[in-house]
Amino acid sequence: MMVMKPVRAFSSAPALCYSRQQSFAQTSRGRQSWRRSQLMTRLWDSSNQEQQQSRPLSNQELVERRLAVNQAKRESRQRSVQERLDRNMKFKRLLHNDSTTNSDQESPFVVPPLYAVKIWVDIDLRQEMRLSGREKRGRVFLESGSKGVQTISGLHQELYGFFSALRKNTFLLSASVPPITADGKVESLPPKEGEAWTIETDDDVIATFQKADEFFHESAVKLQRPCIQINVLKNPNAPPPPPPPAYLEGMADPKQSETMTMLSFYAFPPQGIEDPEAFAFDIKKKWKPFGALGRVYVAHEGVNAQMSVPTNVLDNFMACCKIVPELGEHMENGINIDPQPLTMEEFQSAGTPVNQKPAPPFRNLHVRVRSQIVADGLDKSLDWQSAGYDMPPMEWHQKIKEARETKDTGDDTSSPIVLDCRNDYETEVGIFEGAEPLGTENFRDSWDVLKDRLKDAPKDAPIMTYCTGGIRCVKVGAYLTQEMGFTNVSRLAGGIIAYDRTLTEKTEDEESMFKGTNFVFDGRMGREITDDTLGTCATCGTKTNLVSNCHNENCHKRMIQCADCRTNYHGTCSHACKTIVIKGQAKTEEGSTFSETASETSSKTFESIDDYSVGHSTPAPSVYAEMEHNTRAHMPTGAHMVSGATQGRILAQLASMTREGRILELGTFTGYATVCFLEGARNVGQITGVANGNIHSGPYVMSLERDVRAFNIAAAHVQAVGEKGLGVEAAELVCAIRNQEVPSVDGDFVSSSLDGIAGCDLLRVTDALATVEEIASGNGSLNPAPFDLVFVDADKTRLLDYVDACLSNDRLLNKGGFIVVDNVLWKGLVVEASNGSFSSVADSPDDDKNLVKKNRRARKLANQMHDFNSCIVKDDRVEVVLFPVRDGLSVIRKK
Ligand SMILES: C[S@@+](CC[C@H](N)C(=O)[O-])C[C@H]1O[C@@H](n2cnc3c(N)ncnc32)[C@H](O)[C@@H]1O
Q1: How far is the CA of 794 from the centre of ligand 1 (A)?
Q2: 641 CB near ligand 1 (under 6 Å)
Q3: Residue limits of the Rhodanese domain (predicted)?
């Protein structure tokens, strides 16, 4: 678990940068940075400052510092939005009470005096601002009197809070008396000619609210409170929006691009990057229109980027990079472009598969601030501008060819020393002829290797270095010349990527001196340059050039592994990691397999009560983890719906406690809980001695599902369990489902049984509620013997109907039986629902439409869940215990 350090831990070098920041603060970017540094200065622990002054920021500190700044900004924005929302909510409640308890017009303001302000927005401005529905039908309540809005800036603030897209100086305000319908409803219509007055000054604001008061008292129609309409009009004199930068002119729509181009570049600008955070923020914003993806590192020393850009906007992207002062001419060798763009289809599967599914090389654009763009581990910074000769690829090609020929003649005394400055796993799958690998596991180890390798070399020995894209050789070149005193150092300009491209572009049928695969730092993990297979699978020893990272997050070792082993080992490097991945746990001893390793707990330390509780509960058989993995592989977007280990154990235990082990599940999904129930029902059968349970008697599970795909996966799972039980063999069988197309069930019905004791039927239905109501009515085709436990886990909006079907008579659920309802805490939001105000899913002006929609749905469901919980606890036909496990599980006993 990641533990956030307290803010105090940001002990970097405020005083060190202080004077520089003061002069820097005179520029506009400087001012931004200045404000940020001021904020940070407040966060720093002054007692630590002096001793920390000269220490450069560590990577971790930089990251934490950025997180803290962003967090502070987010919190402050959220606070102000929340305050507005709370206030409006409070007003609405007060107004509601007021209107229900006090309709006396003589004293309308029992609650704080409020104005109902209708907001009408000019059509042009509406379109420009792309207003949401709520904004178009604007209404706010503003307090009057000393707490109310009395100034023009106060009124502007209210409007900025209301319209997230409203920009300073782009609008004018006027006010008018709103039209009132005969039954007292306040409408919001465009103001009539000559009936509106402008609001420009504080006096206009006061006069406007006075007018509202007058209208309230004089209106022929009875009004609940004073109201006024504020009109937001487009300012004809507003300065035109700045023209788009030249590099965006005439740009194609990146979404229409048929191909993606992979590229990389780096820059070590001589002046460095003054404020990496501001730079990262700026550059991300600049690149947004291009739909670029990738991973970019920014540090004081420069920029290092691996990206993919839609090919139809590549020229615009490059033009944009050129005018950024820190990039531009400092992008050594320009932008390193992969010779062959990928079609969109190729791109979608060019990355390393995730959960055995195709994945693109990049999914997002990450621009991250680091302490260095290539971590070198040196204790001082060298002059990156002076790093030897940047040798053009064709010259390099000739030199390597000559070296080969010389070597063939047996005289290689004058040959250059060619050093491959990449790590061992990169060198293993591809290398230049005649090159010597440094054989490092990490770039930081290069210096000792170089010292050792070159200790006897004359200072004028020709040394040629290369790496993937050239950036590492800048550091190696600087080290060799400045620290070791070599005078004849050259580096392959643009690295292997540029070599490959240049050779392809400039020659026909010229033999590449680089053999094998060029490892690249994006999801492709390699680009084949020649078909030589040089690597050896670390797991089985066959020849392969495939490189991947171990899927066990705690290991993540980069390794060479063939496609078969990748599948068999679940993308991990060893049996140990495979077991961890399968079990979804973080710690297992080397060599253990699927076994239920309760003994591991004795030596384990625990980080939380949850961790401790899991560690001291009998572990679930490994087949369950396999089912979860299959769900993630085949239905990734719904994988969170699976009950999972903790809840699954509770469900199995509850099923084991029932009288006859008869369980009905509503919402099978991929069958995880179904198998838990089968396990419990089997346990009951083993005690009672009743076997071969079925729809009419004995231990039996019926589960209803409407989704075909989920149904098919669940069918495969329960059938595997029916065939192999719950042990290791079942785990292997279930695991095998992962890599195959799940077979479609012929029909809507699948039967299985666990250990010949507990029977199971999966039914595909159109609507579980209709089916249970039919069973409860006794008039349908299904007439199962009553169940002991009904697990309600289908649609969450009709819970009371499902429960009613269980309680209306005893056909569906036995007396003394249990109804178990999942998700009753709805991500903890029921607490906020019960308070009538949501803070964690409140709308914020910065939220995009999707988030607004998601939050609205979350609030709606939380309210419904709260209503259900409030209702069921008052129902005297049942007794309820709400367990705060996972997303909340209510166990309801039918009296
Ligand atoms: C939360 S998941 C069930 C998870 C499963 N019980 C488990 O614990 O692993 C809910 C499932 O109910 C299904 N569902 C939702 N509404 C339904 C309905 N009216 N009839 C049948 N199935 C429904 C969904 O397709 C989904 O697969």
Answers
A1: 4
A2: yes
A3: 412-505
